[in-house]
TrEMBL record:
Membrane topology: Multi-pass membrane protein
Biased composition (Basic and acidic residues): 125-134
Region (Disordered): 124-146
GO biological process: monoatomic ion transmembrane transport
A GO cellular-component term linked to this record: cell outer membrane
Localization (cell): Cell outer membrane
Protein name: Outer membrane pore protein c
Pfam hit, one: Porin_1
Family: Belongs to the Gram-negative porin family.
Keyword Transmembrane found: yes
Main location: membrane
Amino acid sequence: RRSFFLHYGFNGEAQLSEGITGFGTWEQEVGLSHAESGGAKSNFTRLGFAGIKFADAGSIDYGRNYGVLYDVGAWTDMMPEFGADTTVTDNFMTGRANGVFTYRNTNFFGMVDGLNFALQYQGKNDTKEDEKGRRGLKGGRGLKGGRGLNEANGDGYGLSVTYDLGNGVSAGAAYTSSNRTLGQRMLNSARNNKDKRAEAYSLGLKYDANNLYLAALYSETRNMTPYGDFSGNKAKHGFADKAHNLELVAQYALDFGLRPSVGYLQSRIDGDYQGKSQTIKKYIEVGASYNFNKNMLAFIDYR
């Protein structure tokens, strides 16, 4: 099925006083393949946050932004089209997320070049299904027009650390821990797992020098990774007790603008609705991108 869409947005900065800078980002996606009656479903805000930077003391921002797990996940999100399947949007703090307050510090207060860290807090994002659960009704599926159970979260926090080791080599790690909502704990397919917290960690390594880009990511989640179809009243969906994710990417930038890419991604879960293990994502990617100039790029990707 063919799909056409448009991304647009802006980044802004303003000097508020000596050493203090205000900044903001807004990004929208518009689908171009729907009739007018269905257009609202394909028009949404990808990012929208504002903050203040205090020179070497770091920066704070709030809004819809990337979760800190993506600080490491971004290293393998380099395939021309595919990849980053383990970075799920609106799934706690793995990808783009609502209501996150983030503190970032680069070069460790200006004292250690290449050492960066971030601290993040995410407020609760409930669903109508959680309200049903509080009233003693069975949960299990999202309601039309609202946030689904697979997109909800309780209060949570996270942190990330990346370090430039020199010679193009960087290492990174991130961790998050969040409360699960009542509806998520009551989900029919999770009846054997009513743990109150969802946790994740990720470890990454990359090399970016001499026109060569190599990146590897390993991550694990607990009570966080969704599987199955949450859109209907079906039993075969839920949150995995544990997920093991692996992403690998290799690219080489040729002098005339061509950048071949090869990658591998696998996501395996333990503890599905039957208490078994299964692989929910696994593929090899082969593709390439071509830069015509700084404003125009073409790509092809196959998996």
